[in-house]
Amino acid sequence: MSGAADPVPLATGIGSFPGDHQRDHDEALRLVIGELAEGGDGHGIPFVPEVPGRGAPAQMTGRTLGLLAAADLWDADLQPEGWRLTGTSGAPPIDQRRARSLLGQDLDGWEERIDGYAGPVKTQLAGPWTLAATVERPRGDKVLADHGARRDLAQALAAAAAEHVADLRRRTPGADRIVVQIDEPGLPAVLAAQVPTASGFGKHRVVHPPEADQAMRWVCEAIAAAGAEPWLHCCAPGAPIELVRGAGAQGVAVDLDLVDAAGHDALAQALEDGAVVALGVVPTTGEVPGERAVLERVRRWLDLTGLDPVDHLDRVVLTPACGLAGSSGAHARRAIQVALGATRALLDASHQ
Q1: pLDDT score of 282
Q2: Pairwise CA distance, residues 317 & 314, whole Å
């Protein structure tokens, strides 16, 4: 965003939408393109929507494992306990093939509807530590239990992320900027040794910051080398903002309600250092506030940082607090519209 002739705040969504059928994804795609691309007036970042209600292959972990299959890196199958790595046989199991096929179908729809658009776009994938905390090894228990396995998985994810960027660029030739949102809801639990073992009677050992940094760095560097911007999204309390910024994340996306005092300081520092800060300020459930209420909340936060809003508008992004899979269709639409409207109001207020 830096260097733009007329810097403006932007709006986007985190990724997920309600529904349990392909037609719900089609509707989510119409909403995203219609509101953020066609109706965004330069304030929107359209993104590849997710509808996890379609089943495990459409959920965050399944979609990312589908990317690994597309890159011929790791095979995984779906067990009653969740996803399990099976090796690199070159013939992905049926559930992983389904995840890859579903993602390809979603991207086909994206390519058709985004045709003619010029501007920034965003996609999402699960981060290395959330994958390690949710996917099992071939011999059982989470990848998190095995230092070598979690290293290999992070490196495979880095390679798959780079291929995904190339695919999205091919499908969106008018994109002047590609953002890859790395979803890490499990990272705070990994760092705090709060991930249960397979037995449920214990917790996995703590992962220390240097190792956490290295895995994130592999993924961020691969995304950046592919010509895209890595953003880290964490909607859990205790998001390690300084750690992920040090690992190369060029943007940080958080639920503002879950940020503590140290987190506010880290966000302000990130903004001052030139990073993007995506503020989750529109509730994902309950009543959607008006644009004016969201604007005032953002202005209060900017006042709290002590930074001059005018100097940082081009690095402020407004979003719903997290994904919208648990909301209604009407709520999801309104949440995106309010985030977008609040960015326009923020720009207007900055010129007064």
Answers
A1: 97
A2: 8
